[in-house]
């Protein structure tokens, strides 16, 4: 299933404001305790950080949908 995730949703999923800069989003991702990477976070370029942010937002959206279906 194809999903469209606006940048503001990605930022909100990470606890950042919808108009947050990429540096803030990167810092929020780096601070996630449940994000287990096999490479140092600092070695990721801006596109990899964007992709991780979208993946995390999609994951949180999926969890929310599963929670809603359970009731």
Structure description:
- The protein has three helices and no strands.
- The chain has 71 residues and is mostly helical.
- The longest helix has 24 residues, at 46-69.
List the helices and strands and how they pair.
Blueprint: H1 7-13, H2 22-30, H3 46-69
Helix pairs in contact: 1-3, 2-3
Assembly category? single chain
The low-confidence parts are none
Number of helices, counting only DSSP H or I runs of 4 residues or more: 3
End-to-end CA span: 23 Å
Give the SSE order as H and E letters.
Answer: HHH
Beta fraction: under 5%
Helix proportion range? 55-70%
Q: What best-fitting shape do the alpha-carbon axes yield?
A: globular
